[in-house]
């Protein structure tokens, strides 16, 4: 049955293939055809698969989302876009899966930093891209990756030369403007040795049903520092499937902040491979209201010794929302002296909300320090009483504690303008009575 | 200020306080001492309005009003402050936010306008210096990652800023080293005034070396078995609680 439904997508592929980027590249065509054949065979993931048991994607199969042929930047309301565009940042805008040079602003970018649309990059730097596309991820991983490989229309290429320290963040703003559009993008980010950068992926859309399919491949060089933020604020009718696949060289630092607020059904995957003495920090906050389903999957792969990983994902779920966390930490036999800590905490605000949490530690080395913890619960009565005894009434105390639970993750944002934007997104999703923004 | 009459309190079916009578006037410092399980903490909880307790008999009147009818936040706004034995950690809310929210709740309760931001900062910074705290504490999350001593100091900081009328210190000395105990005590002593009363709930008389009480009451098995002046605490230190518990059984 699954295959039959997904075959609608496969059947349509021949119409779409001519508009995809990288047409003349044989290696890419090979990859796309292989991915297509795999996707045609498997369809979208089924809830029988362990990694997908909490997340049913059959709604995507029932619809048919298609990429746009024409660029649709004239449909973007510039004033609306500004709400999500950060000041004091280089800005890249992708509309319905296509890079828009007109809406992007990359003035004064240092010469040893390349930022360009994926379609452009495939034309100008095909040999480089061949070395990176599908190198941090395998299309066998899950069929959304095969799907993205076959379908991506554009995306982004970012390359930062060795020792370059970017003084401003780069914001990548993905905008979806049309009903039933498929925005399938592939992004490649490369930081050479000792480079430092902050990159912010932002996903927003008009009040439509659409599908965002994104794969971001990240290569963090030796001793380089990358902080990657993701703010997923898709429309509440939308579907979002986004994966970030990271390879860290030795001594590389990778920090991720994953804010999942939007979409009807969303899943994000973050996988990172850690080489010798590299460090990663994965922070996550998912807020679900109404009937939202928000799924977060992480995989931290300690391949070599002396790696450090820290992970904290928090979820706040109200109404009939459902949050899923599946976190895996794998410590290879060779990865001695690994230091890893994974935590997931969930706050349920209604009886109908649900949190599913599945932390997994797979340890094959024998001299490591690894821990994990999970909590699912309501607001702590002791904390409510503490605030009441400090003159705050019960309802406001509940609002403050709910906000505080989420704000712990917001406060980890190091970029002031982004901090403000995300704070605003958190505040509008929960009762604000008694919360005074000016005091925060 | 506070009048407790024949107070009986149970948790579930279990009686904890079995007839407490206590009169506290403005300007006085009362120490409530007693062994573990005597009902000391229950008394401080019942005064501050913590849920989970049933008053089966008796009354508590605070400034002429029935205290037991008030929700905890109203008691706090009316001037009752409980310094917790185990202050709660609240990641995600800064100390200064909590202080501002609390102070403005009191002002609103009394029909006053919100405190001016600059005045507030001046007030808070002054109190921070008084308690020999680092100003950075203000911007850290409430009690998060604080040491035992820092948490207790933070309680006294809140007290100093909110200027309550009745201060209840629940086992404030527990977990404090001698230096922290001195600073906390100095903080408390600086708040002593003729229109403010203190109730110190404590197991040991150590704290009373630094904050001298006017009255000492010994609680055992849910009753006040002996009351006296500051010298009673010293006598207890010497003879131990069994001295009074035995007396009670004999009586």
Quick recap:
The complex is a heterodimer of chains A (440) and B (251). Helix content of chain A is 23%, strand content 38%.
Q: Cα distance, first to last residue of chain A? A: 52 Å
User: How many domain regions of chain A?
Assistant: 2
Structural class call of chain B reads alpha/beta
* CATH architecture annotation of chain B: 3-Layer(aba) Sandwich
Order of helices and strands of chain A: HHHHEEEHHHEEEEEEEEEEEEEEEEHHH
Describe how the helices and strands are arranged.
The complex is a heterodimer of chains A (440) and B (251).
Chain A: H1 2-16, H2 26-42, H3 58-62, H4 78-82, E1 90-95, E2 98-105, E3 113-117, H5 118-124, H6 126-130, H7 143-151, E4 154-160, E5 170-176, E6 182-191, E7 196-205, E8 211-220, E9 225-233, E10 239-248, E11 253-260, E12 265-274, E13 279-288, E14 293-302, E15 308-317, E16 322-331, E17 339-348, E18 354-363, E19 369-377, H8 381-388, H9 394-410, H10 416-429
Parallel strand pairs in A: 1-5, 4-6, 5-7, 6-8, 7-9, 8-10, 9-11, 10-12, 11-13, 12-14, 13-15, 14-16, 15-17, 16-18, 17-19
Antiparallel strand pairs in A: 1-2, 3-4
Chain B: E1 2-11, E2 14-24, E3 29-33, H1 40-48, E4 54-62, E5 65-66, H2 72-77, E6 80-83, E7 90-94, H3 95-109, H4 117-130, H5 136-139, E8 141-142, H6 148-162, E9 166-170, H7 178-191, E10 197-202, E11 215-220, E12 223-228, H8 231-239, H9 242-250
Parallel strand pairs in B: 3-10, 3-11, 6-9, 9-10
Antiparallel strand pairs in B: 1-2, 1-4, 4-5, 7-8, 11-12
Helix pairs in contact in B: 6-7
Structure description:
Chain A is of the alpha/beta class and 440 residues long. In chain A, 23% of the residues lie in helices and 38% in strands. Chain A has ten helices and 19 strands. Chain A has helices at 2-16, 26-42, 58-62, 78-82, 118-124, 126-130, 143-151, 381-388, 394-410, 416-429, and strands at 90-95, 98-105, 113-117, 154-160, 170-176, 182-191, 196-205, 211-220, 225-233, 239-248, 253-260, 265-274, 279-288, 293-302, 308-317, 322-331, 339-348, 354-363, 369-377. In chain A, strands 2-1-5-7-9-11-13-15-17-19 form a ten-stranded mixed sheet, with helices on one face. A nine-stranded mixed sheet of chain A has the order 3-4-6-8-10-12-14-16-18. Chain A is globular. The model of chain A has no long low-confidence stretch (mean pLDDT 94). With 251 residues, chain B is α/β, with parallel strands linked by helices. Chain B has a single domain (2-250), classed as Rossmann fold (3-Layer(aba) Sandwich), CATH 3.40.50. Helix content of chain B is 38%, strand content 28%. Chain B is built from nine helices and twelve strands. Chain B has helices at residues 40-48, 72-77, 95-109, 117-130, 136-139, 148-162, 178-191, 231-239, 242-250; strands at 2-11, 14-24, 29-33, 54-62, 65-66, 80-83, 90-94, 141-142, 166-170, 197-202, 215-220, 223-228. The longest helix of chain B is centred in the middle third of the chain and has 15 residues, at 95-109. The two termini of chain B are 32 Å apart. The model of chain B has no long low-confidence stretch (mean pLDDT 91). Classes of the chains: A alpha/beta (440), B alpha/beta (251). At the A-B interface, helix 8 and helix 9 of A face helix 2, strand 7 and helix 3 of B.
